[in-house]
Sequence to fold (182 residues):
Amino acid sequence: MISTKKNFAVQAVLRTRTIATEDGVLTTTGTARTEGQEFIEASRVFLKDDFLPKLIYCLEHMSDEDIWWRPNEQSNSAGNLVLHLCGNMKQWIVESIGGVRFTRDRDAEFATRDPVPRIELVANIQSSVGEVDEILAALPEPALQAIYHVVEHFSYHLGQILYVYKLRTGADPAFYRHLSNR
Ligand code: NI
Fold:
């Protein structure tokens, strides 16, 4: 859990973003000196402390059949979307910003039909987010556009995966229960 220490009053919206933890609010540290640094830190919080745990929750609460289920050939399975998120983060951040060579096979991310074991999917997304986080932690402030793309892209596909999770399990993970007064 990242604590809140507000040193100055900019970026209030990012700093007070709430996620669904039992005990409440997840924010940046408030120690960033520039808006660019605050943006980078907030992006790390989104990816590592907000999106990643939700994605792993879904994977751990679906069967392999659910993870690789697709409603039709035009729609991706949750498993394929996880492979796709890993490829996207490695290309845009790890290779483009971090300079670590990575040969992406984007088509294979969508084409894979042999179920990749859940444990491998989880390890893959964890290490991809971990590599991204390390690079962003050491980044002064360029490449905001790439970070913006990767964060919005992760959120977009996380929403699809959550939708599959609900369709297949009939369960509600209640990630946003803190926003409801019922
Ligand atoms: Ni995509």
